[in-house]
Amino acid sequence: MYDTINTSDKSSAPSLNPSRTICHVCQKQFSQYTCPRCNSRYCSLHCYKSHSLRCTESFMRENVVGELQQMQPDEQTKHKMLDILKRFHSEEEMDSINDDEDYSTLSEGIVQKFLSGQEISFDDLSVEEKKRFQRAIASGELSKMIKPWEPWWSKLSARKIRLSKEGTQLVQPLAEEEMEDDTEDHDSSKIPLGPETPLPPVSRLSSKEPSPILTVHLVDILYSYCFTLRLYNGDWRTDPLGSVLVIFSVSSVLGQGGQPETVLEALSHCLQQTCSPAFRHMGGLQFGFGVIDDAIRLLELGSSALICALCDMHRLVQEAGKVAKSEKPRKSRTDEIRSTIRHAERKIYFIMCWVHEQPQEAWSSLASIVRTEKASVVESESRGKTQRLNNKAETKGKCLIEEIQ
């Protein structure tokens, strides 16, 4: 297959003896792993999930507050933020009237300061306003105020992606570039560029024959890519390290060194992570089904679109690696996350070279398999809901009979 390095082995061998460190969550078992976000020690998947919500909220809050403190907005950014603040303020006022609560998101002084054109920093907010703002970030409430991002793979121009025989980016005709400049709202909606250098044959990267389950791993990787871009509204460049941590949380292949053997197994893991407390605010299972549709769309577009997506993901991981290396000591992640980034970079590049060698018809077949497995999950979920409703009604009926007797 490709050179796979077991990152779990390295994560269980830090400078301190893990057998002598108690799990920070359950306080019962010896820990074997370290959270890449907060460096907490944990012993099992259950304990990791138990701590992941507050860890994610803290991580997201730190990143957003840091970005706010460093931002030097231009006039266009100010106008966009003003629109968001106006909508958010008016909606909260309406909610407070409907709920008969004395609740206001922003003080009148802050709103007037912004309306007068003065700059507002996070420090200008009161303690209560800061708490409300942080809660809005953690719950995903602010994301509802932002114009939804249109994925590049859903655009008509995505059907016309062409790469050279070596897999490199072709020079785009000037007429098409000018047309795209007129229709695209921002850079994150544009189709990512393909590789700048020719892709080497897989045989040069590994002496082993590629494994047949690489198709399954591709589905896992595509899902995590689409999920992350949806989460960051198409612009991973605002936070490369945060983006790659999301990828590692969702992808079994890249994040946990997993080896799913079926498409259903890969999708099940991705959907489970999507419905976890850390990402539940995105929309749960229904949002996950939409991300599967994104992956299907990429597969249907064929090799060129897949290579562009993987190349974009490869750049994301590379940028995250640079950020991880340059971070100050107080913010630095452990060697574990840096090692995982290096291994993910190699895996994505290998998959990209492997995709380049596959026939076009392979992707339409894989897209059909993914669509079929998605349908089976949807049907299973529907049956499960019906069964739960029936059980609830049956239980309620039994209780009623007992009360009558």
From TrEMBL:
Pfam family membership, one: SHQ1
UniProt-recorded name of the protein: HIT-type domain-containing protein
Lineage, opening ranks: Eukaryota, Viridiplantae, Streptophyta, Embryophyta, Tracheophyta
InterPro entries on file: Shq1_C, Znf_HIT, ZNHIT2
Gene3D superfamilies given in the database record: 3.30.60.190
Entry-linked PANTHER family: ZINC FINGER HIT DOMAIN CONTAINING PROTEIN 2 PROTEIN FON -RELATED, ZINC FINGER HIT DOMAIN-CONTAINING PROTEIN 2
Stretches assigned to the HIT-type domain: 23-55
Segments of this protein annotated with the region Disordered: 170-206
Keywords, sorted A to Z: Metal-binding, Zinc, Zinc-finger
Biased composition (Acidic residues): 175-185
Origin species: Stylosanthes scabra
